[in-house]
Design a protein that fits this description.
Largest sheet: 3 strands, mixed
Radius of gyration: 30 Å
CATH superfamily of the largest domain: Clc chloride channel
Number of domains: 4
Strand order of the largest sheet: 3-4-5
CATH topology of the largest domain: Clc chloride channel
CATH architecture of the largest domain: Orthogonal Bundle
Structural class: mainly alpha
Distance between the termini: 57 Å
Number of strands: 7
Mean pLDDT: 87
Low-confidence stretches: 1-11
Strand content: under 5%
Number of helices: 24
Length: about 600
């Protein structure tokens, strides 16, 4: 056989060609990763791809959920579940209960196999540098589909953002992106998901900036907008955004209505805080020890089904109900009934174990509260002639801010729904009031509040993972000068010359930490006459103040401030108190400042 040379390689058959192809692909991937890491401009094409993929995923999920509603509840294919006047009572009870049992079995299996909880995009960006498991994201999205598909009172937006962010994180890790770029990619995935869901690119972009990335910056604007626009157009090309809303006949807001909307914002802020405060009580109701894990979602499904017999508007996210209720006249009692049942159904669904979000549910309930506010003003002494539609949209945005967060996100949602700058201006003013009030009184959005209930302390998606990783164990020095507490000052001077150490760390006969003595104090002339009889323990400071290796630098600095100390001992645990190192305040603050500068540079696009 004639041998053919290809780039100094002899032809050895198909295996050689495959090997060459693999090496060429690998080399291209390496060049691509180098280009992306070297120039942030190349993040834009990656964001476009993420947007297209997220748009496809969102559209498919919404269509699967709608098909499930058609098959389970027997509704028309072009009609939303919550827009039906009535549903079969038996189906309303059995469908959510059956879906709940499936989810209960999944949770029971997770606990039995000791699989950790899935990380959501906010937690991933705040603590893990944007690292999300695609497998966990697919599981969460599947559970959200089951929850919404069986009629539980939750929306699909949590599944949308989870799968969008999960795929974006996978792309970022495949390209070996830096920490800040990976966080940005997660933001692009979430932005694309929301943009595709609502057909609103600006809403998706600001959702990512405010809630997922945590900051606005020039460097992040282009990739996030690119992902949002491509996702919105992909969803439109595939049949339309599932949560798309459009209101063209909204009266402009007059100056006298601004004050009324500020009052509405305060009322809705109180409602939002009450909902978030009520969540732990619903959790405790379903987390009783005598209730097996697998049965809790089933019981929650029965409760939601019972409410659906009263009004089907409590089922699923409420998109159809919102379109149905906004233009029609409704009595105040009917609006109050729907608001109360919908909020209870949402809290029961989440507390019992259904997966999903409150994004659209908060928009639906906020619309009803705004509409109720306008109706109440019509029958009051202060009849300002407020347009019920403008009031409803403002209420929608305000409750969205109170529960989900993001005043600019909700304001741009109003803008993209109405194309009215005047209506948006009124909604923005009310949203800012809501945001300030909720942060001052409560301090959390619903997502960060639920993380708080699990033991986390984060209040936003700002990157604090570096702070948790900067522990005392990484900062401490281990060349510890240890002395017995009953040693005399003279002996300490002999064994530890001045300048040989920062301080002497004292231990008892059980090798437990009992305090520290600074070397300048040991060599003080005040003790020259009695240095043979005075024990070093008499000079001990900070006997009960110590650090542990697992502490982060911020907690350590708080200990320094409270003890007014320049140096502290590090012990293995507060129980055994065995000395393993020491840390100085100056070094801890310097390292904290360096890491903070680096994190800030990454946020501002300077890193």
């Amino acid at each position: 056989m004639t041998e053919v040379l290809i780039k100094n390689r002899r032809w050895r058959g198909p295996s050689a060609l495959l090997s060459l192809s693999y090496e060429t692909t690998k080399d291209f991937g390496a060049r691509l990763r180098t280009a992306i890491r070297g120039n942030e401009f190349f993040l834009i094409p990656v964001a476009l791809v993420i947007g297209v993929v997220a748009g496809i995923a969102v559209t498919l999920m919404s269509q699967i959920a709608q098909l499930a509603h058609v098959l389970v509840y027997g509704i028309r294919i072009d009609l939303r579940l919550s827009a039906n006047d009535v549903v079969n009572p038996w189906v309303a009870i059995l469908a959510p209960a059956a879906g709940g049992l499936i989810l209960g079995w999944m949770e029971w299996s997770r606990r039995r196999w000791k699989i950790s909880n899935a990380t959501d995009p906010v937690e991933a960006n705040a603590l893990r540098g944007g690292r999300l498991s695609l497998r966990d994201s697919i599981v969460v999205s599947g559970q959200t589909l089951i929850s919404n598909g069986c009629g539980a009172s939750v929306g699909l937006e949590a599944g949308y953002t989870q799968i969008g962010a999960g795929m974006a994180s996978l792309f970022g890790r495949m390209l070996n992106l830096r920490r800040n770029d990976l966080r940005l990619m997660v933001g692009c995935g979430a932005a694309a998901a929301i943009a595709a869901a609502f057909g609103a690119p600006l809403t998706g972009a600001f959702y990512a900036c405010e809630l997922i990335v945590g900051v606005y910056s020039v460097s992040s604007a282009a990739p996030i907008l690119a992902a949002s626009i491509s996702a919105a157009y992909m969803a439109r090309w595939m049949g339309g955004a599932p949560y798309s809303l459009s209101f063209v006949h909204v009266s402009p807001i007059t100056p006298k209505e601004y004050l009324a909307f500020i009052v509405l914002a305060l009322i809705i802020s109180a409602v939002g805080i009450a909902v978030m405060r009520a969540a732990p009580y619903f959790d405790r109701l379903f987390n009783q020890k005598f209730l097996p894990v697998w049965i809790r979602p089933g019981l929650g499904g029965i409760c939601v089904g019972a409410m659906a017999i009263v009004t089907p508007q409590v089922l699923a996210a409420g998109h159809g109900a919102m379109i149905l209720d906004l233009p029609r006249d409704m009595s105040g009692l009917a609006i109050l009934t729907i608001i109360g049942l919908k909020l209870c159904a949402c809290l029961i669904s989440l507390a019992s174990g259904f997966r999903g979000g409150l994004f659209f549910a908060s928009l639906f309930v906020g619309c009803l509260i705004g509409k109720l506010f306008a109706v109440a003003l019509q029958y009051s002494f202060f009849n300002l002639g407020i347009d019920p539609m403008a009031s409803a949209l403002t209420g929608m945005a305000c409750l969205g801010v109170a529960i989900v967060g993001g005043p600019l996100t909700m304001s741009f949602l109003v803008l993209e729904m109405t194309s009215s700058l005047q209506v948006t201006a009124g909604a923005l003013a009310a949203c800012i009031v809501t945001s300030v009030f909720v942060r001052a009184v409560f301090g959390h959005s619903f997502s960060t509040w639920r993380l708080h209930l699990r033991g986390e302390t984060i209040r936003s998606a700002n990157d604090v993972g570096w702070l948790r990783n900067l522990t005392v164990e990484r900062l401490m020095r281990t060349d510890v000068a240890v002395a017995r507490s009953d040693t005399s000052i003279e002996q300490c001077r002999r064994e530890h010359p001045l300048g040989s150490a920062h301080a002497l760390f004292l231990s008892n006969d059980k090798q437990q930490y009992v305090g520290l003595a600074l070397l300048p104090d040991i060599y003080s002339s005040d003790f020259d006459a009695q240095d043979r009889i005075i024990a070093i323990a008499d000079l001990a400071k900070h006997r009960d103040v110590m650090l542990t290796p697992s502490m982060n630098v911020k907690t350590a600095m708080k200990c320094f401030d409270e003890a007014e100390a320049e140096i502290l001992a590090v012990v293995d645990s507060r129980d055994t108190r065995k000395i393993v190192g020491f840390l100085t305040e100056g070094y801890a603050r310097r390292r904290y400042a360096e890491e903070l500068d680096q994190a800030t540079a990454g946020i501002l696009g300077q890193g």
